[in-house]
């Protein structure tokens, strides 16, 4: 009697392996942070589960990863993985499987990542009992004051402008991060037999 697609033993094994790989990457990066080198890999095992199987496998990979991290590192780190990395992984798998162009997948992933960063600020503020966003605004204000003085201006930056600068910085950093994720996925997943859509010609030209 043949196995149904949703109960295929290979799917279960691969999903468990990809989930444990994600948890291990997250764990190693927490104790031995190496900048974006490992972080850019966080969404890829989940996206690969979607590409090789379907949405159910991707969500199971996310859930198992979150459970593993909750056991190994506590629920706080588990939630920080889930939002945004887990959701980004499922979203990218969904988009790549449907051959979305990079403009679409990059934009959607950047939006999810930026919202996830906002969630992280709120979540950490709740845990610490302090408004981390306000602390960040103070640091940005000091930086802008120094920058304006460097160019000979003694004016104080407007509060709305500071907020806009902070939000723009979050969006830009998430865009740069998602671009790295796309580039790594384009190189690695193609070699694993699950290619994603090709990047725009100008990006291919830069890499050649």
Automatic annotation (TrEMBL):
InterPro entries: DUF2232
Membrane-crossing residue ranges in chain numbering: 12-33, 53-72, 79-96, 102-128, 135-154, 160-189
A Pfam family this chain is assigned to: DUF2232
Keyword check for Phosphoprotein: no
Keywords: Membrane, Transmembrane, Transmembrane helix
Residue stretches in coiled coil: none
Protein name: DUF2232 domain-containing protein
